[in-house]
Amino acid sequence: MKLRSLLLATAGAALLSATALSGVRAEGVTIDDIVKDQSTPADVVSYGIGPRGQRFSPLETLNKNNVKNLTPAWAFSFGGEKQRGQENQPLIKDGVMYVTGSYSRMWAVDAKTGDEIWQYDARLPEGILPCCDVINRGAAILGDKVYFVTLDAKIVALDAKTGKTIWRKKIGDYEAGYSATAAPLIVPSESHGPLIVTGNSGGEFGIVGEVQARNPDTGELVWTRPVIEGHMGTLNGKESTMTGTKNESWPGDMWKNGGGATWLGGTYDPDTKLIYMGTGNPAPWNSHLRPGDNKWTSSRIAIDPESGEIKWGFQTTPHDGWDFDGVNEFVSFDMQKDGQTVKAGATADRNGFFYVLDRTNGKFISATPFVKNITWAKGIDENGRPIYNDDNRPGDPAEAADGKKGKSIFAVPSFLGGKNWMPIAYSQKTSMFYVPSNEWGMDIWNEPVTYKKGAAYLGAGFTIKPIFDDHIGSLKAIDPATGEIKWEYKNKAPLWGGVLTTAGGLVFTGTPEGYLMAFDDETGDVLWKFNTGTGIVGSPVTWEQDGEQWVAVVAGWGGAVPLWGGEVAKAVKDINQGGTVWAFKLPKQMAAN
Amino acid sequence: MNTGWKTIVRGAAILVVSLAAALPAAARDVPADPLKSVMWADMAERFLAGGDIVFDQRVRVMAPRSAEDQFFVPVTVDATRLPGVTEIVVLADLNPIPKVLAYRPVDAEAFIAFQIKVEQATVVRAAARTADGIWHVGGTHVDAAGGGCSSPAMAHGQANWMATLGQTRARVWRETRDVARMTVRMRHPMDTGLADGIPAFYLSDLEVSNGTGRPLASIDIYEPVSENPTFTLKPRIGADTAELDVEARDTEANEFAYSLPVPDPKVAN
C-alpha cells in the first residue's frame, strides 16, 4: 500500500541522516549473529543465549573466587500499577537492553546506565484470556527491528531505535482463547531467508496448537504447522500437508479443539537445521473423553524451517490425564557416552522425567526421574513410553454414581510440573544440566465438559499440595549421560525462574523469596546472593561490557503459582509484587582474584 | 584553586564552542508572541525547527473563544491566502502533548479543519511553512474548563470498541472546478496515554491520493486530535478525477483504507 511505502521511505531517510550525523553505520543484528550468539559474549541477541537454548556463557571473568564481589550497577523500574509476574529474559545489543514485561510492554534501556530510551505499551483489547498471569517471556531482534508477542495473540515488530510499531500481525483469535507469551525464535532458512517463528497459548480453552513462521521484514506468513493430527498446514499461502492422519490417535471430532498449545516457543539447532517445539496438554484435561495417544500433544516435534513439515515427533505423555503440558524446551547438546559423541537433545518434562533424545531423528536414548516420588508412571520403557500406573489416572466421571465427578486421586508431580516453563541450562564446562524443579503433588478429579468457544475447557478439578515439609523448589545438577543427580539445592518456595551457567563455574537462578543466587557448578554451594526486593521468576543473562562482566535479571513476583497454587499459594502469600531490571557487574578492580 | 578555575573556564569555552557548532548559523530571532503565551519560546524551539519565524495574519486559526466541550474543540486553519505553503504545524501550547498535527498539502489548498482535546485554557496556533523555509504563524486563544487530554475515550465504555476501529465515513464535494472539499471521519479512541491504565493509541498517519496513486495530502497526527478524528481538507483535483483514496495507520500498525467517489463536475452539488 502506498502509505506504507511512504512511511518506509521516510524512515529510510531519517535513518540515513541519523547515520550520516553520527558517522557510525547502523548494522543491527544479522541472522549469523543470532546463530553464533553463544560465542559472542558482548551481546545477547537470542532467547536462550544461542538458538540451542543452552543458557551457557563462555565468559569466565566472573568466577567462583570473585563472584562475592558482584555488585549492583543499576536498577530500572517498569513502573505503573501493572506489577505482575515478570518471566522474561533481557536481550542486549550495542549497549542497549531490550526487555519485556507484564501486560505486553517493552522497554529499551541503556545497558550501561539503566536510562530509559523508549517504552512500548501494547493497546490490549478487553476480554483477553491469558490462563496463567499476564506475563511475557522476552523479545527477539533482527536487523533494525525488535519483536515480541502480546496477550491478545499478536506479534509486533518495533523499530529498535524508537519503539514505533512497524507491523503487527494476528497469531490467533483472542476471543476464542488464543494468547501468546513466549519469546519469538528467529531461524535461518535457505528457501525463505530468516524466519520469525512463534507458538501460541490457550490450551485451557480448546485452541489448536500451531507453529507459525513469518517474513521478519513484513510479518507475512511463510508457513503454518498445526500440531494436532487432522489439521492442515500451509506453505506460501496455500494448503500444504495434513499433520499426521485424522482420527489416528483422536476419537470423533475431539481433534478439532485438541489443545497442544506451543506456548513456550522453541529452540533451533544449526547442526540439524531443525526447529524444536514443545507441545502442550491435550484438551480437555479429562482424558476419558479422548481415548488414544492424542498426537502431538505433550510432545517434542522437530520442524523443517524450509517447509514447515514435522521431521520427527516424540510424545512424552501419550493420552495425558494430568495436564503434563510437555512444552518444555528441548536443548541441543553433544553428549559424550561410551567414548562416542552423540548429537543429543535433552528436556526436563512436566511429567517429572528427564529425557535425552537423538536430536537428528527423535530416537529415545534415556529417561530418568528428576523429582521424587513420581506416582503416575512406574517408569519409562525402552522405547520411551511411560509405564502407566493405571490406578493413578483420575477416574472417569461416567463411572461415578452421579456421573458428575470421577474418583479423585493424588498424583506426583502436580499439574504445575516437575518443571514448568522456567528454562534449564547446560554447561559445556561440566557437561551437566541445571534444572529448576519442584517437588509437589495434587488431588485431581475429572468432570464432564463440552467445548464452548472462549470458555475454559478442562473437565477437571484439582488442588496442589507440597510433598515435603521444608521445600518445594529444588535446583538440580543432572548428568545427562547417566541421569544421575550430582547435587541439589532445596528452596522453600517453588522455583519459577530460569537458569544461567557460565565457563567461570557458576550457576545463576532466582527465587520467589527475591534472591538472585550464584552456585558453584560442581558442588551446588551458594557463593553469592542478592535480595532484589520481590520474587524472581525471570531468566538471568550475562554479557561483557567495557571489559567488565555483567549479570542482569528481571525481578517481579507472579506467574502461575500464586494464581493456581492451592495450598502452595499460602507459602508465597507474603511475597510482594514488583517489576524491576537489576543489573550487576564485577568491577574491574575486583576481578583480579 | 587556580587549576580548578582554569578547568571551569576551559569547560565553559568548550561548551560555548560546541553550542555554536550545533546551531546551523547565527541564532534566529524569535519574535515576541502577540498572544503572550508563556510557552511560545519553547514551542518555537521544539516544533518549528530552522527557518525564520514571522507572525502573519494570512494564517488564520479559527476556534471558539471558550471551549464548550474540551474533548471536541473545533479548529479550522486557513492559510489559503499565503502562497507556497508546504506544511502546516498545529500546536496547543499548554496541552501536556502540545503537537496536534503536521499537515502537508502536497496538491491541496492550505486549509484543514479538525477537532482537538484541550487540557486547560491554551493558545492554539498554526505555523505554515512556505517553500523558502519561513514559518508563518497565526493563532488564537481558547478558554476551557480542562481535562480533555487525561480522561478516557468514550469508546472504552463499550467492551467491543475494537470491533469498530477504523470504521470510516467520508464525503467529497466539488467547491470549484479544480478544488474539492472532503470530510473524512474514522472511528478511533485516540488514547493519549494520560488516562489511568490506558496506553497511548492513536491514528498517526493519514494520506489522501487521487485514485491513481498520486498523493494529494498527508497528515502526521498526534494524541491531542479528538476521538473519532474528523478532517476536512481541500485537495486539488482534475475534472476527470472520479475517486479519492484515504489511507490511514495507527500507532499499533492497524491500517485502514477508504475510497470515496468524486461527484461529476457536470452534475450540480
Automatic annotation (TrEMBL), chain A:
GO terms for molecular function: calcium ion binding; oxidoreductase activity, acting on CH-OH group of donors; pyrroloquinoline quinone binding. Belongs to the bacterial PQQ dehydrogenase family. Residues 233-253, 383-404 are annotated as: Disordered. Ca(2+) binds at E204, N281, D323. This is PQQ-dependent dehydrogenase, methanol/ethanol family. Pfam families: PQQ. It comes from the Bacteria. Pyrroloquinoline quinone binds at E87, R137, T181, N420, W421. Residues 237-248 have a biased composition (Polar residues). The active site is at D323 (proton acceptor).
TrEMBL record, chain B:
InterPro entries: Fuse-rel_SoxYZ (IPR030831), Ig-like_fold (IPR013783), Ig_E-set (IPR014756), SoxY (IPR032711), SoxY_sf (IPR038162), SoxZ_dom (IPR014880). The keyword Signal applies. It holds the Pfam family SoxY. The keyword Disulfide bond does not apply. SUPFAM superfamilies: E set domains. Residues 1-27 form the signal peptide. Residues 176-258 form the Sulphur oxidation protein SoxZ domain. Residues 48-149 form the Ig-like SoxY domain. Keywords: Signal. This is Quinoprotein dehydrogenase-associated SoxYZ-like carrier. It comes from Zhengella mangrovi.
